[in-house]
Amino acid sequence: MKAKERDYDYSLTKITCACGNVIETRSTAKDIHVEICSACHPFFTGKQKLVDTAGRIERFNKRYNIKN
């Protein structure tokens, strides 16, 4: 049996992020819109937000009357 030929059309595509960053690549899809890219994701930018857990722990201890 002869294998089916797949003829994909990889055309130039623009991937647009919500931050305004535009990446050009080739894809079978048309224009793509994403919410997060490597230019604005906290892991890649190094601007990660730290969650203040100290306040949550104190609130938990206060709620259940736990004393250290």
UniProtKB/TrEMBL annotation:
UniProt KW Iron-sulfur keyword: no
Keywords recorded for this protein, A-Z: Metal-binding, Ribonucleoprotein, Ribosomal protein, RNA-binding, rRNA-binding, Zinc
GO CC list: ribonucleoprotein complex; ribosome
One annotated GO molecular function: rRNA binding
Domain of life: Bacteria
UniProt key word Flavoprotein: no
Names of the cofactor(s): Zn(2+)
GO annotation, biological process: translation
Cofactor binding summary note: Binds 1 zinc ion per subunit.
Annotated binding of Zn(2+), by residue: C17, C19, C37, C40
InterPro entries (UniProt xref): Ribosomal_bL28/bL31-like_sf (IPR034704), Ribosomal_bL31 (IPR002150), Ribosomal_bL31_A (IPR027491), Ribosomal_bL31_sf (IPR042105)
SUPFAM superfamilies: L28p-like
Annotated HAMAP family: Ribosomal_bL31_1
Record family assignment: Belongs to the bacterial ribosomal protein bL31 family. Type A subfamily.
Free-text function comment from the UniProt entry: Binds the 23S rRNA.
Known partners and oligomeric status: Part of the 50S ribosomal subunit.
Protein name listed in UniProt: Large ribosomal subunit protein bL31
Gene (name only): rpmE
